[in-house]
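INFO  loader      accepted 1 record
INFO  loader      residues=182
INFO  predictor   begin
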Amino acid sequence: DCQKAFDFSRKTEDVRRLMDVSRIIHDIPLPVVTALKGRVTGPGLALALASDIRIADESTQLTTGYARFGLSGGYGGVYFLTRLLGSARARELLLLSPDLSAAEGLDMGLVTRVVPTGTVDDDAFDLAMDLAKGPTTSFGCIKQNVSMAEQGSIGEALDMEAETYVLCTLTADHQEASTAFR
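INFO  predictor   done
INFO  writer      dumping tokens
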């Protein structure tokens, strides 16, 4: 009995460590672009949902898949689906595990762009390179603001926005952009 409890606890902790990659992707203060192609299911979909921009090849198929394998969800999939789609739609996708096309994923908000078959790697790379040239402090602050908007009150969100706004005004990126605009 004690051995089973120990094994359960150890296995749970091991799985938590593996799944922490979703939190890292979500929380990193830089934009994360994910290219999706082929069949994207379960943990792969969850990791993609943790990213900021999800570009799918038009032939991509998406499914949560957990229920098909007798699993409850993981890698933040339940968290991100609920945040992106609301609890009713998240429950439907998790319980029924339907196969979705890239277009259906776009309509639902699971993916942010759909591109022609064969171009997703280049399109995602090009976008990531464009973002890499951008205002990194601003990007990190935008991600903080969006996270606060998801979880906090309006007051907390406005406080965060005020702080990050002022922080961004102190950056060279802002000062150069302001000078160029003038």
